[in-house]
Amino acid sequence: MGKVTAHLREVLPDDVILANGAGNFAVWPNKFFQYGPKARLLAPQSGAMGYGVPAAIAAKVVHPERTVVCFAGDGDFQMTSQELATARQAGAQPIILILNNGIYGTIRAHQERHYPARVSGTDMESPDFVMLAKAYGFHGERVERTEDFAAAFERALASPTGAVLDLVISPEALTPRQTLTQMRDAALSASRRKG
Ligand SMILES: Cc1ncc(C[n+]2csc(CCOP(=O)(O)OP(=O)(O)O)c2C)c(N)n1
Ligand SMILES: [Mg+2]
Asked: How many CB atoms sit inside 10 A of residue 115's CB?
């Protein structure tokens, strides 16, 4: 995602509107994108999952001429994915990047920090997001390798029907600075020290 965000900084227009919901994935648009005076970020102050998709659609209704990109988690996206139908109906179809790591990452991180290796209910089986996007009349693509992102994003930008890019990400890459295993190991050795 470091490389993906760096690429987006290069190619997105100055007046881009970004949106996000809640989850660890939100660190990328929140901390690693550089906002000039014309760019906007629509994000929940209350940490509401599912906020990004409807916010991005609303942005596209108000500013159809501007590029709107929503960052969503795989859990987060599924809170409001049905709004893709609203987008289609309103002719207001943004680009949605799903950072698909197969887990409710934020909650897993809490589990690993407080109860290391005792995982409960944070693995997630998702639908095929590309098929789902297409069912709603969006362009859809799955991106499995970092080096394939740039071309896929170019096709998303060129699509007249908006786009959903399903970005397959390792659950280990949960934060920019610490992997899931490092989180678990740190908590395990801290609890051993305590006895
Ligand atoms: C509506 C709502 N339900 C539950 C939560 C608690 N919560 C915060 S982050 C999170 C998991 C997010 O998972 P995902 O969207 O896959 O993002 P990741 O952390 O994996 O990047 C949950 C359940 C919330 N913030 N909002
Ligand atoms: Mg996730």
From this structure: 13
- Residue 78 is part of which domain span? 2-194
CA 195 to ligand 2 center in whole angstroms: 33
Q: How many domains does the chain divide into?
A: 1
Task: Name 38's Cβ contacts closer than 8 Å, sequence gap at least 6.
Answer: 14, 15
**Residuewise pLDDT in 10s, the chain (195 residues):** 999 999 999 999 999 999 999 999 999 999 999 999 999 999 999 999 999 999 999 999 999 999 999 999 999 999 999 999 999 999 999 999 999 999 999 999 999 999 999 999 999 999 999 999 999 999 999 999 999 999 999 999 999 999 999 999 999 999 999 999 999 999 999 989 887
CB-based contacts of 107, cutoff 8 Å, min separation 6: 122
Nearest atom in ligand 1 to 103's CA: 20
Rounded distance from Cα 76 to ligand 1 centre (Å)? 6
**Which residues line the pocket of ligand 1, CB cutoff 6 A?**
22-25, 47-50, 73-76, 79, 99, 101, 103-107
Q: Of 126, 135, 133, which Cα lies nearest the Cα of 156? A: 133
Q: What is the CATH number of the domain that holds 75?
A: 3.40.50.970
Nearest protein CA to atom 9 of ligand 1, as residue = 23
